[in-house]
Design brief:
The chain is globular, with a radius of gyration of 26 Å. The strands form 7 sheets. The protein has a 25-stranded parallel sheet that branches. Strands 6-17-26-29-32-35-38-41-44-47-50-53 form a 12-stranded parallel sheet. By secondary structure, the protein is mostly beta strands.
Length: about 700
């Protein structure tokens, strides 16, 4: 069995063509045989054929990381410490999480309306989506407040989208108020979601088609016989069911006046389905309607990016609280901004990133001061934003103070729709909610900051294949907090992906899913006091925790100083698998119990880690406790760990740890969790924030 994870993709595809591939893997120095295992997310429809397969030993591996070490800091190196650093009670320098979660805590928002005032009613089996939508608009236009849903069951036959700040949807309790989301695609299995039949299409009008997702291969939109756009299934399409265009894609291709929209869906081994709908094109029509967004049953959406880009005139460095721009004209104190370092070919070569897409080095901040072209930020940068890659900032329009609490939401249809979504949202929350059978993700956020999910239950998902689904965690989010949550039968959780930075997931339990740094240069995030019971049955990989490698063309590598503190992790494969380019990860005071493979595996410039005070139980008698697979994994410290079982070796691989101190190798046995210096490094930082 290979200790590494090649994570191959595209071995065949829908066109059944031969595809050349090469993928590195790593073995112990004593390996004499190799067994190749192929796993599919959808094994019932998997066929794989191998031809001309060779195993080649590669000896000219790099012997040092591709950039100078920057993140392994010592408390006495005061000149190197920045506002992004906090010296912990154990003398380890941690990332700063003192500004994590909803600022000031989740508020108790006064009730401003009841859904019954807008025509909604519990337990009548009628659609309440229009009532909830109008209630949220009315409350939002008055400055915010809670929309109250009483005891009983409400039904949503359409998504509800909130675009005003300060709107909270509140039930009477997780076990008392229930929402059934039952939006379904009508027969014959294809529909034009928007506009309505006979509606007018102007340049800003959204034109969206929905199709039954099972075996969907292609979607095509036409006006009369003119093709407006197509979508075709790819390797990461998942359970896609919709495609949207705007009137700008149509105006000019055909003249103004009456026309027929045609939506065509093509399926594997089945006839295509076509629906038609009359519309009127008008290039001068200013469409102010805002139809619901079909990505979430309940969605809270800020407007997003606003205006042009402000290029940096000087590198933004880790710990900086100011940025120098080429021009700050148009910025104002109080603006919400996104800082972005594009994934240039230079940077991708440096990090050996083979993923052709995705977001990596981003952060959200507030402009707290302006002096000429110098911008003062409310928080320090966590990573560098160099000008060589064209780093810039851009204003963002965000929704704030929104939330959902005290209810259960269940989805009845297998459509790729998230239960509750926050996007371009700051200081928003979910509290005391249960999400059952989500279509994509349960409660999720993207491009957001200071959000907080607390006391929630996430129970199962309809779709668990590839493409990004059944995740519990943070994506493109910054300084967000998840606490006291529990998940069942999700795919990946707890999870960070796509530029997530400074976020915390703590004091939560994850049943039948694996922990993940799933993609996109996630950095300075914390897992603590989490229980992870990993399995591969719901689409997980079987590792306790897994960090995507740079050669993974679907995910790319992860960034510096992610932390695992006081967690309890059980897995069928290696306890912790780090794919590479991971600098100075802190693995502290955890228990890892692994059925097969090593306790920790790292490769490809995964360096400067501190692995201290952990308990590792390795049931596989052929595996070492720690396998350092490549010689560029320098600077790894193993201090004060207890190792039970395995092959008796504390470490094995291409290189030895730089520090191997006070570790013990013991016979295989059940072992208690270690006792950390403080139960929660996050709480400790909050309590000592004034000291810093």
């Amino acid at each position: 069995m290979l200790p590494g994870d090649p994570h191959l993709r595209g071995l065949g595809g829908s066109e059944q063509k031969w595809i050349d591939f090469a993928c590195p893997f790593y073995t112990t120095s004593e390996a004499r045989t190799i067994r190749l295992v192929i796993h599919s997310y959808n094994s019932s429809r998997c066929e794989a054929y191998l031809d001309d397969l060779h195993f080649v030993r590669v000896s000219d591996m790099p012997t040092e990381p591709p950039w100078p070490a920057k993140y392994k800091l010592r408390p006495d190196e005061t000149a190197r410490l920045t506002p992004a650093d906090v010296v912990g009670p154990d003398g380890i320098v941690y990332p700063n999480w003192t500004r994590c979660g909803m600022q000031g805590g989740i508020p108790d928002v006064p009730v401003a309306a009841r859904i019954e005032e807008f025509g909604g009613a519990a337990d009548d089996d009628k659609d309440d989506s229009d009532a909830l939508d109008r209630a949220c608009i009315a409350v939002g236009e008055k400055g915010g407040g809670a929309v109250l849903l009483g005891e009983g069951t409400y039904h949503l036959d359409m998504p509800v989208t909130i675009r005003h700040s300060g709107v909270v949807i509140r039930g009477a309790g997780m076990d008392t108020t229930k929402i059934i989301f039952r939006y379904a695609i009508p027969e014959p299995g294809v529909t034009i979601f928007t506009p309505e039949p006979g509606g007018t299409v102007g340049p800003a009008t959204r034109v969206e088609m929905h199709c039954r997702p099972t075996d969907l291969q292609k979607m095509t939109l036409l006006v009369d016989d003119t093709v407006i756009g197509t979508w075709e299934r790819g390797a990461h399409s998942g359970n896609t069911f919709n495609r949207a265009w705007t009137g700008r894609n149509i105006i000019g291709k055909v003249p103004d006046g009456p026309h027929t929209l045609k939506a065509i869906a093509e399926y594997k081994d089945a006839p295509a389905i076509e629906v038609r709908q009359p519309v009127v094109l008008d290039a001068n029509y200013a469409d102010t309607r805002r139809p619901p967004v079909a990505t979430a049953a309940i969605g809270f959406y800020g407007s997003g990016w606003s205006g042009g880009k402000f290029e940096l005139a000087r590198d933004g460095l880790r710990g900086d609280m100011t940025l120098t721009l080429k021009s700050a004209e148009g910025l104002a104190v109080g603006d919400a901004i996104e800082i972005n370092a594009p994934a240039t070919e230079r940077w991708k070569a440096l990090t050996r990133n083979l993923c052709p897409w995705g977001t990596y080095r981003r952060y959200h901040a507030r402009v707290d001061g302006l002096e000429g072209n110098t911008v003062t930020l409310n928080q320090p940068l966590r990573i560098d934003f160099p000008i060589i890659d064209g780093s810039y900032i851009q204003k963002i329009a965000v929704i704030t103070g929104c939330g959902v609490e005290g209810l259960t939401l269940e989805q009845t249809e297998n459509l790729w729709i998230t239960s509750v979504q926050f996007s371009h949202a700051w200081n928003c929350f979910a509290r005391g909610v249960k999400m059952k059978m989500c279509g994509r993700n349960p409660v999720y956020a993207s491009a957001s900051k200071w959000c907080e999910f607390r006391d929630c239950v996430f129970d199962d998902a309809w779709f668990k294949g590839g493409g990004g689904t059944a995740y519990v965690g943070w994506e493109n989010c910054y300084d967000c907090l998840m606490a006291q949550c529990e998940s069942f039968k999700m795919r990946h959780g707890p999870l960070y992906q796509w530029a997530a930075s400074g976020c915390v997931i703590r004091d939560s339990v994850f049943h039948e899913s694996d922990g993940q740094w799933h993609s996109g240069w996630t950095n300075e995030n914390l897992f603590e006091q989490c229980i992870v019971e990993s399995s591969a049955g719901n689409g997980g990989y079987g590792y306790g925790m897994w960090a995507s490698p740079p050669e993974d063309t679907a995910h790319g590598p992860n960034g510096p100083r992610n932390v695992v503190y006081n967690c309890d992790v059980r897995s069928t494969r290696a306890g912790l698998w780090m794919g590479g380019m991971n600098e100075n990860w802190l693995i502290l005071y955890n228990r890892f119990v692994a059925d097969t493979g090593p306790g920790v595996f790292c490769k490809t410039a995964s360096f400067d880690h501190i692995i201290r005070g952990n308990v590792f139980v390795v049931r596989d008698e052929k595996s070492p406790m720690v396998q350092i697979a490549t010689p560029d994994c320098l600077g790894i410290e193993l201090i004060g760990n207890l190792f039970y079982g395995g092959n008796g070796k504390l470490s094995d691989g291409a290189i030895a740890p730089v520090i191997d101190e006070s570790n013990q190798a013991l016979p295989l046995a059940d072992a208690d969790r270690p006792t950390p210096p403080v139960p929660s490094i996050y709480v400790w930082q909050q309590e000592h924030a004034a000291d810093g």
